[in-house]
Amino acid sequence: MMNKYFFVLQLIDPFGISRITRTVEERIYIEIDGGWGEAAPISYYGEDEFTVQEAFRVFEKTDLGDLDLIADVMEKIDKALPSNRAAKAAFDIALHDRFARNLGVPLWKFFGHRPQRPLVTSYTIGIDSIDVMLEKVSRAMNYDVLKIKLGRNIDDDLVVIREIRKLVGESKILRVDANAGWTVSEAKRIIPLLADLGIEYIEQPLAMGALSELRELKKSCPLPIFLDEDIHTSRDIPRVVGAADGINIKLMKAGGLTEARRMIATARACDLQIMLGCMIESSLGITAAAHLAPAVDHIDLDSHLLISNDPFVGVETRPNGELILPESPGLGVRLREGMLEQFQRLQ
């Protein structure tokens, strides 16, 4: 029995990236025998709340067999519906929560990776006017790592990143994400400056699919390049070897924890670094991803910090951005008191 719910997340501040600015995000939550999952569909990838609901109807009509056999279940779902990874992610997450709850262990322990270092997430500063971005940075000075969104206007990018570095000082770790917003010439213009400013790495500098241009850019690039928009599942990873230094794994693009773990193994085999990222998700989706954090190199799991009406309580986030994994069984999430009444129940 799958219970389905619709809810609208409210962002604390407008959240801008190279191609869009958002103030709300529509999300669908599911519950299967006590296990919870979240679908965060993204229109950029052709998904929305309606495609998610249609996918769930397909899942419900499919003979999935023993739900404890998660890998088998997800293979059957892939055959029934090759697309719609946000819906698959929600289903996969719920099954993992259900299974680990029944075992009585936290999911990270079931996965077999105890944290060997502090698990510190970056905190993201979305695109806005220069003054507003600097004000956001001022409010986020407690975080050890800041991720700065650029890519909408190259001249503004050049100004704001200089001003941010001046504001935070030389020791603050800064990362830059262009979200596919630069041309090759723009990337060649700005990346040397970013290197001079001590930026740690850049994410998705060029348009999705521009792998030949990325390979050429990488030959003279003074900073590591991570890819996000170009990476969905493990099948995408081998083709970016030589074009990037690392990849960004997101559960909503991968289709859940099962595929994300496969991606981690594939990236390691390809000698690529791994970042763990997110869409705008509640503490449910963030906590699910956090259980993989001990196995990756960089963490960008901060969207629960960007919303004002998070319906779930999950992974603890300390003021500097350090994530403390739950010790309770399953995902270790719980629905906040009174939130179920605010959910819209779906058929």
Walk me through this protein's architecture.
The protein is an alpha/beta fold and 347 residues long. The chain has two domains: 2-104 and 336-346, 2-Layer Sandwich (Enolase-like, domain 1); 109-335, Alpha-Beta Barrel (TIM Barrel). It is 35% helix and 21% strand. The protein is built from eleven helices and 17 strands. The strands form four sheets. Strands 5-6-7-8-9-10-11-12 form an eight-stranded parallel beta sheet. It has a four-stranded antiparallel beta sheet with strand order 3-2-1-17. A hairpin with a 2-residue loop joins strand 2 and strand 3. The protein starts with a strand and ends with a strand. The mean pLDDT is 97.
Strand content: 15-25%
Shape: globular
| Proportion of helical residues | 25-40%
The separation of the N and C termini measures: 12 Å
Which fold name fills CATH's third level, the topology of the largest domain?
TIM Barrel
| Integer-rounded radius of gyration | 20 Å
**CATH level-four homologous superfamily name of the largest domain:** Enolase-like C-terminal domain
Which architecture of the largest domain per CATH? Alpha-Beta Barrel
SSE succession? EEEHHHHEEHEHEHEHEEHHEHEEEEEE
Question: How would you describe this structure in keywords?
Answer:
347 residues, alpha/beta, Enolase-like, domain 1, TIM Barrel, eight-stranded parallel β-sheet, four-stranded antiparallel β-sheet
